[in-house]
Amino acid sequence: MEIFRIAAIGIITALCVLVLRENRSDIATLIGIAGGVIILLSLIDYFTQIFDFLKQLIDKAGIDGGVIKALVKIVGIGYVAEFSAGIVEESGSKALAEKIALGGKVIIFIMSIPIIKLLFEIVSSML
């Protein structure tokens, strides 16, 4: 199963980072980033399946593709912000990690405004 491979990569990476952090913190950070990238790359097939499912959903439901694209972008921004903030926090810059997380939240809010407007239009047309 794929989850065991992902878990093993994560555990091995964490142990390597733990061992190297005291003597070579710069290399420990790079190993942590590399482990995260390896895990993300191992998930590419799953992302493809998700996008295929969303395309089928759009085709069958007749949903505007722009809404689904915006939702996928919003989720992607959330993951990138969380992943980046985690790496920065692990390297010792908690305040900077919080700024990355805040930036992600602000961008997510801005990107969701058209969807919120669309929902208000749908609700007001029903009343």
Structural shape: elongated
Helix content: over 70%
Give the terminus-to-terminus CA distance: 50 Å
* Mean pLDDT across every amino acid position: 88
- Give, in order, the helices and strands: HHHHH
- Counting helices, strands and paired strands, the structural category is mainly alpha
- Rg, alpha carbons: 19 Å
- Largest sheet, strands/sense/barrel: none
Give a count of the beta strands, DSSP E runs of length 2 or more.
0
**Total discrete domains:** 2
Low-confidence stretches: none
Q: Quote the beta fraction.
A: under 5%
Number of helices: 5
Strands, helices and their partners?
Blueprint: H1 2-21, H2 25-42, H3 44-61, H4 65-90, H5 94-126
Give a brief outline of the structure.
With 127 residues, this protein is mainly α.
Structural overview:
This protein is mainly α and 127 residues long. It has 2 domains: 1-42; 45-127. The chain is built from 5 helices and no strands. The chain has helices at residues 2-21, 25-42, 44-61, 65-90, 94-126. Helix 1 (2-21) runs antiparallel to helix 2 and helix 4 packs antiparallel against helix 5. The chain starts with a helix and ends with a helix. The mean pLDDT is 88.
Summary tags:
mainly alpha, 2 domains, 127 residues, 91% helix
